[in-house]
Design brief:
Strand order of the largest sheet: 4-1-5
Structural class: alpha/beta
Largest sheet: 3 strands, parallel
Order of helices and strands: EEEHEHHEH
Helix content: 25-40%
Number of helices: 4
Length: 153
């Protein structure tokens, strides 16, 4: 039995997408199929019945422009100190939540969707959010076992 959470919880989706990339240059905006990789996460999140707002936290004007084109909000540019190779994604999330809290918008929970993880779909997102609330979890993370060495990924 699914838990009816739509009217009880406002869930924000945060997609953190740095402009710099160590491995594959510009990976977040490379095309997969007919659209940039980040657009897949945005469009799946926008279709979720639990997500009321989809934002992209980025330091890149190009990523911001593409994200807006596909329907995400980009309410701020992430500061450089939160965007370097050694920056913590948790600090980027805190920055985003603090941004909204300072404007009187309070979110009890948020979902982090990987900018370069285009294969998740809306059903996966909604099932995960439903499980998160049903189990009254503090956190939920999706993982997949791999047959290949982690260094190859």
């Amino acid at each position: 039995m699914a838990v009816n959470l739509i009217s009880y919880f406002k869930m924000i989706a945060i997609i953190a997408a740095r402009g710099g990339s160590r491995g594959l240059k510009n990976k977040n905006i490379l095309k997969l199929g007919n659209k940039p990789i980040i657009a897949h996460s945005i469009t799946s999140a926008l279709k979720s019945k639990y997500i009321s707002k989809v934002i992209v936290s980025t330091d890149s004007k190009t990523i911001a422009k593409i994200s807006k084109k596909y329907g995400a909000e980009v309410p701020f540019m992430r500061p450089k100190k939160l965007s370097g190779y050694n920056a913590s994604i948790l600090d980027a999330f805190k920055h985003a939540i603090d941004f909204y809290t300072n404007r009187g918008e309070n979110y009890k929970s948020f979902v982090s969707l990987g900018a370069s993880c285009p294969l998740k779909n809306t059903k996966d997102i909604d099932n995960s959010i439903n499980l998160f609330y049903k189990k009254r979890a503090l956190t939920l993370i999706s993982v997949k076992e791999t047959e290949k060495p982690v260094d190859w990924l």
